[in-house]
Design brief:
Blueprint lengths: L1 E8 L5 H18 L3 E7 L6 E8 L2 H12 L2 H14 L6 E5 L9
Antiparallel strand pairs: 1-3, 1-4, 2-3
């Protein structure tokens, strides 16, 4: 099992709009396609910062869920364009992490 910690920077002043879109559209859509969204956060020190975490059973689960989400017409035609409008893509940081035995996330 592994996790992705995904840190995004929203366009200035648009974080509340982003959070609503994530919670109303992106997270439910990704969950319906097999993504396991574990958590969603706003950055307490950066008014445009946002962090979320996804969990995957293994590389095959990651590949299948990623293809189902980003290869879908709904993502390409509807969701993706809104995401790209709300985020500063080049500031996104995605970190793949594996829990240690004592982490409680195994």
């Amino acid at each position: 099992m592994f996790y992705e910690i995904r840190r995004y920077q929203t366009s200035s002043g648009r974080r509340d709009e982003w959070v609503r879109y994530m919670e109303d559209v992106v997270i439910p859509f990704q969950a319906s396609a097999g993504m396991d969204v574990v958590a969603s956060f706003v950055d307490a020190e950066d008014p445009d910062g946002y962090v979320w975490i996804r969990r995957f059973a293994d590389d095959a689960h990651h590949a299948d869920a990623t293809a189902a989400v980003y290869g879908s017409d709904r993502w390409k035609d509807e969701i993706g364009p809104v995401v790209h409008d709300l985020l500063i893509g080049e500031k996104s940081v995605i970190t793949r992490v594996v829990p240690t035995p004592a982490s409680g996330l195994n």
